[in-house]
Amino acid sequence: MYKPAHFLKAKKIWTMGRFVDWPKAVVHSMSHALHYGNSVFEGIRAYPTAEGPAVFRLTEHIDRLLLSARTAKMKSPYDRERIIEAVLKTMRANKLQSAYIRPLLFYSYGNLGLVPKFSPVELLIGAWEWGAYLGDKTEKGVSAYIVPWRRIHRSQLDMRAKLGGLYTLSTINGLEAREHDCDEALFLNLEGRVAEGPGENIFIVKKGVLQTNALPESILEGITRTSLLEIAADRGIPTRVAPIRLKDLYRADEAFFCGTAVEIAPLVRVVDGSNPRKTAKPHTIGSGEKGEVTRFLWASSRTPSAASCPNTGNG
Fold this sequence. Notes:
The protein is α+β, with helices and mostly antiparallel strands.
């Protein structure tokens, strides 16, 4: 029996077309994905609206889930429409007004050779209430440790895909950052430029211009990232998509992480530990506090548009 201590209000998990009580959900210990990381997933947010809870950019998230599955050579047991329907049913079954939603496709139990010849692909969907990913510090601003290990390079895999096994690198470096008393890690790419966080994209602001980097910089092109570029353009904030050098980050007026789980987290301090042969050096970003552009975008993003948020129908 599994207690949902860190999965608030989680009651049911959708498992291959049926609901299972959260404490009773079971995956076999010899499942292929558990040993080799052969899974793909999405993180999706739902928000309360006047018309009831609504899921943010659900179609785009499921499209990326299926792209990730193709990258991992998986054949999904469900098409896009069925997965969207299952996500909405999971929200209703858990009676959630706001939620973090996790669809997971994985190679399940069958064989343990590296090639999963006899391991079918299964789909799980969980949903629960989850607050700020980086905790209470998100309001005032967080610190990041620039880790010595580089982000996996775009020449190695399709960087648009969210592959479970790749997040081992994120876990290791997230722990590394916390060992250095920072709230989160920050990766450079093989070229030595700023890439992204373990589960977040990064933006900087300089002289009123909002800047982020792009897929050639070995990043995941996040859906939240794309949304913020659209919101900024709609609100008249100049935007730029270009590589971010370390000196660009250090000299920025503002910086922030963004992503589905983290939403928007002001980045007010970084510690450069990218060269293990040198002493790590701290840098304050801008004033060391949440900037005006960050504050404005955070407020603007709190009300998702109905056009991009299918309603779950349980409000």
